Amino acid sequence: MHAITIPSAGGPEVLTWAEVPDPQPGAGEVLIRTVASAVNRADLLQRQGHYNPPPGASPYPGLEVSGVDTATGAAVCALLGGGGYAELVAVPAEHTLPIPAGLTVEEAAALPEVACTVWSNIGADLAGKTLLVHGGGSGIGTFAIQFAVALGATVITTARRAKHEALRELGAHHTIDYTEQDFVAEVHKIGKADVILDIVGARYLARNIDALATNGRLAIIGMQGGAKAELDLRALLAKRGSISATALRARGHDEKAAIVRGVRDDVWPLVESGAIRPVIDRRIPMRDAAEAHRVVEVSDHVGKVLLTID
Ligand SMILES: NC(=O)c1ccc[n+]([C@@H]2O[C@H](COP(=O)([O-])OP(=O)(O)OC[C@H]3O[C@@H](n4cnc5c(N)ncnc54)[C@H](OP(=O)(O)O)[C@@H]3O)[C@@H](O)[C@H]2O)c1
């Protein structure tokens, strides 16, 4: 088969479409012939040499895939520890999902990573709550907005102004341009956030606590603004607040299987009803993954960039 390889860490130009051995599915695994994969920000870090695959995972990038199970002919999509940028992918059957009714196989590649990440971090108990989503224009953000709105939450999101119209179309009730506005002050004008889904990390830690409601919860999933910060615990205590921080890729087999089951139960019906749709910024042939990484690196996209195989 062919896969996108990373012969040495570096810029997008290092990504190389090369012939490599076919993966051999182990016990409990299925072999998927890829129709599409999608770019995640983590893939850029892996390419730069800052985010190695977990033990046992494929060395090729790609955290999600859609395609056809070579044994049964069934169309599926899957959450991966790596290896999605390839013509064939071996993955535990328990980490696969059916293609939701109403979506093409290709479109379904936009969902596994964002659905599993968002569901496992903010849960589905959001009715009547206020959710602050940082980076609403990201793959994660565009999914989180739709998911929370579908569940009956009020959604506030931060993004550069050029993306606001698209995010309002997805259902966001309030949009904040974090480059010009103080998001804490803006959130306080609206109310307070019961849940915050954060991708910035250190730079926003204290301000996120400031924006949090009493009994609120901050779920940190990204460190685009650094990893080390100081926090005045009195602010957290006073609010009886909690902070969680997780990375999906490093979770074990069983935890991922449980998350995939949760997504099937809680998210797939919302996709099949049309309440959530995959937000696809553009499609780029997988062999041109370097071009896809350049697009994601400058962050002009809204939603997901798909990598397709003819
Ligand atoms: N922990 C996990 O398990 C897990 C899983 C998946 C993803 N993630 C993380 O989630 C984040 C999103 O991933 P993705 O693949 O969806 O990324 P993506 O599509 O590449 O989007 C990145 C986004 O970051 C936004 N951004 C940068 N600085 C910001 C700031 N100060 N305030 C608000 N937004 C800001 C950009 O928005 P603008 O263009 O508006 O600036 C852009 O939309 C990444 O940090 C990724 O590492 C974590």
From TrEMBL:
<keyword id="KW-0521">NADP</keyword>
<dbReference type="InterPro" id="IPR014189">
    <property type="entry name" value="Quinone_OxRdtase_PIG3"/>
</dbReference>
<dbReference type="InterPro" id="IPR036291">
    <property type="entry name" value="NAD(P)-bd_dom_sf"/>
</dbReference>
<dbReference type="Pfam" id="PF08240">
    <property type="entry name" value="ADH_N"/>
</dbReference>
<dbReference type="InterPro" id="IPR020843">
    <property type="entry name" value="ER"/>
</dbReference>
<dbReference type="InterPro" id="IPR013154">
    <property type="entry name" value="ADH-like_N"/>
</dbReference>
<keyword id="KW-0560">Oxidoreductase</keyword>
<feature type="domain" description="Enoyl reductase (ER)">
    <location>
        <begin position="10"/>
        <end position="307"/>
    </location>
</feature>
<protein>
    <submittedName>
        <fullName>NAD(P)H-quinone oxidoreductase</fullName>
    </submittedName>
</protein>
<dbReference type="InterPro" id="IPR011032">
    <property type="entry name" value="GroES-like_sf"/>
</dbReference>
<dbReference type="InterPro" id="IPR013149">
    <property type="entry name" value="ADH-like_C"/>
</dbReference>
<dbReference type="Pfam" id="PF00107">
    <property type="entry name" value="ADH_zinc_N"/>
</dbReference>
